[in-house]
Amino acid sequence: MTSDGQRPFPDGFLWGTATSAFQVEGATEAGGRRPSIWDTQCGIEGRIAHGDTGEVAADHYHRWREDVALMQQLGLQGYRFSIAWPRVQPTGVGPVNQPGLDFYSRLVDELLAAGITPLVTLYHWDLPQALEDDGGWPARDTSYRFADYAAIVFEALHDRVDLWATLNEPWCSAMLGYVDATHAPGRTETAAGLRAIHHLNLAHGLAVRAMRNIDPAPRQGIVWNPVRIVPLGQDPDGTIAEGRRRALGLRNRVWMDPVLRGRYPEDVLRDLEPYGGLPVEAGDLEAIAQPLDWVGINYYSDIRFQAAPGSRTANTPGLVGVATPDPGPDATDMGWPLTPDGLRAYLLDLRDEYPDLPPIYITENGAAFDDPIIDGAVHDKRRIAYLEGHLCALRAAIDAGVDVRGYFLWSLLDNFEWQYGYAMRFGIVHVDYDTLIRTPKDSANWYRDVIRRNGLAAG
Ligand code: FCB
Fold it and tell me: 252 near 260, Cβ under 8 Å?
């Protein structure tokens, strides 16, 4: 990386952290909340490491004031959090559950009073279980229910919240939830997963339309987790190239093309046809392609593909003959390889592929490393190195002309990491799960300095 990484970021660049409702809130039965698909998932033996659940999590539902004060001490300028649909509409339909909505309204007020810009994600995977019982995302009706829910939340908060994201990483909702079963609701039905893809896209478009009808001023966006796939080794018969095309189609283009271009890519439609295809109806693509004010990109690492005759990839129908190599000893606790420059390279690819892309926010980036508390401190050097490398790469992408407006580090707090439970610690603030005491790690202090100088230190 060049020394450009050390120059300050553009004026007005927004530095924040991110969390999501189910991962930090706990209090799953408080204030009229009803179960989401993740509560159900936690209740099924063997689905979550160590039998962990979201019942307490980081107890943010009770400690939100303390957490906002902590953010203020760390000098954070932005906070991305999600709204739990089952708090606001406990069964996913019908009138608002006021105590649930009030929780977020108070949180927004507290953030604004602390000078912190809220970014609201409407859906970060916690579908009300009652809607799953009616078919979940494979059912078209769920898209309309989501638009109703979005309008309820927006009505309450649009006067104070400017940055809105409809969905977080819809690829995970569809493919991990309905195809490979690593995520809730844990179904293994490929055709249902493909229906979920289209209904998530439709839900996004209908929700943006509903919110703009109420007030066109707030900035509307969506959060994706596209990947950059780097081919490794020889590829004499083109298996890696074909696998890469297929995987990028399902992971990146089937989400971005309808939203940004108003159509699904022909080759992806062909790939998916044998598995049931996408249930597109007249008018859907117009609904999906609402112009956006920004897009969110979550980036953790590149994926590498090498030839592996005979292998199949569960979450990508038809992806055969490739596998990802062992990430080596330097990987994060998640087993994700360290590929910081991939962030720069990916953002340049993205800009080339979609020249009319709206401004970008990096809505998640961070690393799981488990470092012990010693004398009240956590010396998380590996996390700092990870963040430094990625911010350097981000600075280089901005230098190369990519319009990135802000960065939300994942995560503020150690939290419930889905199927891994509490085993994966992504926080810049350590959470003791017995006492719930928060202890800023070295990375939190390091990040405070980055924010203060609007960039990395020289030299
Ligand atoms: C992303 C999710 C987020 C968190 C990080 C580590 O895929 O959006 O909730 O789990 O990964």
Answer: no
Catalytic annotation present for 169? yes
The single residue listed with the structure tokens 């280089």 is 396
**Which of 171, 255, 370, 410 best tests ligand 1's pocket when mutated (most atoms within 8 Å of CB)?**
410
Residues 42 and 25: their CA atoms lie apart, in Å, by 15
Kindly indicate the confidence band of residue 2, based on its pLDDT and cuts at 50, 70 and 90: very low
Ligand 1 pocket list (CB less than 6 A): 20, 23, 168-169, 225, 298, 364, 410, 417-418, 426
Alpha carbon of 50 to ligand 1 centroid (Å) = 19
Rounded to whole angstroms, what are the CA distances from 456 to 5, 260, 345, 392, 448?
7, 33, 20, 8, 11
Active site residue 266: no
**Does the predicted model carry a pTM greater than 0.85?**
yes
For 295-344, the pLDDT digits (tens) are 999 999 999 999 999 999 999 999 999 999 999 999 999 999 999 999 99
Q: Is residue 88 packed enough to be buried (19+ CB in 10 Å), middle (13-18) or exposed (0-12)? A: buried
Helix then strand then coil, % of the chain, to nearest 5: 45, 15, 40
The 8-class DSSP code of residue 91 comes to T
Give 309 Cα–ligand 1 centroid separation in angstroms. Answer: 30
Q: Please choose from 124, 364, 416, 424 the residue to mutate so as to test ligand 1's pocket, defined by most ligand atoms within 8 A of CB.
A: 364
Options 110, 169, 388, 417, the catalytic residue: 169
Question: Phi-psi category of 12—alpha, beta or left, where left has phi over 0 and alpha has psi -120 to 50?
Answer: left
Calculate the CA 106 to chain-centre distance.
Answer: 23
Sign of CA dihedral 68, 74, 79, 81: negative
Q: In percent, how much of the chain has pLDDT > 90?
A: 98
Which atom of ligand 1 is found nearest the CA of 223?
8
CB 294 within 8 A of CB 222: no
Confidence tier at 163 by pLDDT (50, 70, 90): very high
Q: What is the pLDDT of residues 404-419, one digit of tens each?
A: 999 999 999 999 999 9
Q: For the segment 357-392, what is each residue's pLDDT rounded down to a tens digit?
A: 999 999 999 999 999 999 999 999 999 999 999 999
